[in-house]
What we know:
The protein is of the alpha/beta class. It has helices at about 15-25, 55-75, 80-90, 120-135, 155-160, 230-240, 275-285, 285-295, 345-355, 370-380, 400-434; strands at about 1-5, 75, 90-95, 115-120, 140-145, 165-170, 180-190, 195-200, 205-210, 220-225, 250-260, 310-315, 320-330, 330-335.
Amino acid sequence: MTWLHPASWIAVAAVAVPIVIHLLAHRRAERVAFPTLRFIHATRLAAVHRRVLEDLPLLAVRVLIVVSAVAAFAGPLLMTAGRRAAWNGRLVRAIVAAPGTAGTSANGEFAFRTQRIDAGETGDGIRRAVAWLASAPPARRELVVAGPLTLGSITAADVALVPADVGLRFERTSTLPASRTIKGAAVLTPTAVVARTVTLAGRETSVRDEAGSPPTEAPIEIAAPRDLEHTADAALAAVLAARIPVPPSDRRARLALVAGDDRIAANAAPIRVPWMADAVAAIAREADLAAEAARVPSGLGSDRLANPPWIPVARAADGRPIAVAAAAGDRLLVAAKARAGDFLVPVLARAVAASLSPDSDHRDAEVLAIADEQLRSWTRTPGAPPAPRPETVERDDRRWIWVAVLLLFGVETWMRRSRRDADAVVEEERARVA
């Protein structure tokens, strides 16, 4: 037997209630008919406290009522062979369909319950399907992924999210074209904004650049004291030479270089704009920046730079921040300790400029499919149904215990009435004898 709500057994302490009632109940003194009281001496009244339980059968019935009610609230579930066979005999299926997938063969297969999940990203659809399967009634569970199954649409990390007892299979619903040509993100050069066209043909990828208009404004502004101006100019030139993607016009950043710890922008504010938060996270993940910062012996000495609104994005060898970020109006503000000719400056400037552009995702244009061998290695049959959960079981066995509770209430009522009737008969007999 399994209890769906085992914590309810704490309420079994309520069995003390009928016991206390039996101990504290005051029973009226019996009236005894007597012909004369002439020869009985008067005495003072004295309270007699009763500490012995009386009518133990009635008390036992009342205790059993409380225990049975608590057991019913605990949700008993008998794991019989028939119930297990019924669960093993049915199947719940979740179908993750890629965009444009009209129908799959899994839709025509019989299942106890079927749920189709249309997902723009297959990995997100798998996570949603796993959550739905977890809330389904006890049964064998299966997840079907339908779509073109392009390279990169499903990863080993996505498959690892599927519990081991959930069956997994894949169905290709369309064929991929031999090649595709898409428009890539424009890049920034020292002389012009270059438009890019990306062609995917089999396992080959080709990029064609077309020079366009000259850049109107650099996405990043570098402010530095006089002794660091040459370092700032070299860093900006390095950023433009790196051919970074052109960010949207509303995303701009300012890099403030300081030689010491006493001069830093005073208009810093907490970051509340989503794109700024994403940019700070991207800068902090930059491996080249972290490696270069670790070569610097000491970071910024001001303690206030380690507290809000400043967010550290790189740390020196002594563990102190060497570069911090905050908001300054509609711009992202990054302040860093620098020295003339320091290689950290161009690395940081490149990381800041690259963080302003959203990641380009061309997985929808992929023309290669995941290999059949890989899909077969991920495929598995449904396992046994998982352990039942309170929110997934359609019916438990508490109704039989509630029936027993009602019967016990009837027995308790009959016992009380029988006792009153017996007392009435005894009193009447005594009166008649007197």
